[in-house]
Amino acid sequence: MASSSSPSSSSSSSCLLCTALILVLSSLVAPHVAAAPLPFHPRDVLPLLPRQVSWPILDSLNSPDDLLPTFVGAASARNSTVKWKGACFYENSAWMEFHNKSGGEFGGGTLHIKVNKAHSWTCMDLYVFATPYRVTWDYYFLSRDHTLEIKQWEGKAEYEYVKNKGVSIFLMQAGMIGTLQALWDVFPLFTNTGWGENSNIEFLKKHMGASFEPRPQPWVTNISVDDIHSGDFLAISKIRGRWGGFETLEKWVSGAYAGHTAVCLKDSEGKLWVGESGHENEQGEDVIAILPWDEWWDFELHKDDSNPHIALLPLHPDVRAKFNETAAWEYALSMAGKPYGYHNMIFSWIDTKDGNYPPPLDAHLVASVMTVWNKIQPDYAANMWNEALNKRLGTEV
Ligand SMILES: *[C@@H]1O[C@H](CO)[C@@H](O)[C@H](O)[C@H]1NC(C)=O
Ligand SMILES: *[C@@H]1O[C@H](CO)[C@@H](O)[C@H](O)[C@H]1NC(C)=O
Ligand SMILES: *[C@@H]1O[C@H](CO)[C@@H](O)[C@H](O)[C@H]1NC(C)=O
Ligand SMILES: *[C@@H]1O[C@H](CO)[C@@H](O)[C@H](O)[C@H]1NC(C)=O
Q: Where in the sequence is the signal peptide annotated (predicted)?
């Protein structure tokens, strides 16, 4: 049965715990008794257990690889039905029906999912459905047809994406419901929507105690280029879209309230420039760039869809007096065009065997997000892992 209600309630979990322990015990003795097979596998009831109980059991049942979400396919138009074998249901298929029930410009869609041939009466499969604009999940207990309703696409971009690439479907081990619930805090951060933006704000409030108070208008200061000098610092906080999501996690793991920084430089003719990483070049790669101030500022004011909050932090006059503009220019020019540096980013988080992430984030969760994102935004996620791993393994090109 498709349901999104909470699968565990405290009143029933203690009893389920007994059941599970009995099952685990009986599965241990079962091989010696030539009895009928168990009606269901202990793994099947794990999702119903509290996480601290289910995880140790799970650890003893699965290899870590099994715990990551598995990409099973992308569902698009009816004539290209995707089929796969699940952990619980052995015959599954899905296709997308586009409709216009909302009467909006791009309409919406119904994802039809057919699950069949369960290996036991009580098992279930847990699914994550994702586009770059939304993530949702559901789990299935019963062999039958299920549907997932998407009232309205976020806009042309999502509509085109789903038409061309489909809705990505990931299968998760049923026991991973704990991870999935934790993912729930993290996934929407990356979606380029108002939902994503609010999720970022909520996340920072909840996990960092950050407060967000709307400023009085005007939201943009009239800044004069004459008042900005070489070495002045731009502290930037983006809260929407893919950069917003990454910045939120960066802020959280690093404890900073800015997720991105840039530096101002003036040339010998007094023209102002901004040195920044993460600038998208014509090939769609994120590189380090030195941009004319007017171009940079215009982009931030009018085109940056990550809703950036920018603070200008001028150098203290004493420090400015010591700032070597020539050396700064030499360094900036030597870095221009180089990759953004995902390796630094990811390894600034991951530097111990465990204890890298504040709860509820754990290595598993990060790997799960990356697995999902890898499929949906392959260029971006591949950058991050490939650069990071190449750096560690000394196999950079
Ligand atoms: C599926 O149908 C659409 C429209 O009916 C058509 O444009 C497309 O080529 C078909 N795709 C396949 C794989 O048959
Ligand atoms: C959905 O219906 C509305 C209103 O009738 C129309 O303007 C829009 O173009 C339709 N969209 C699609 C994708 O058919
Ligand atoms: C900013 O400058 C423009 C043009 O010089 C002016 O019209 C506007 O009132 C100024 N805004 C503020 C808040 O000073
Ligand atoms: C500033 O940097 C340049 C280039 O690295 C160097 O040649 C020069 O001596 C430096 N100036 C001072 C005052 O340190």
A: 1-35
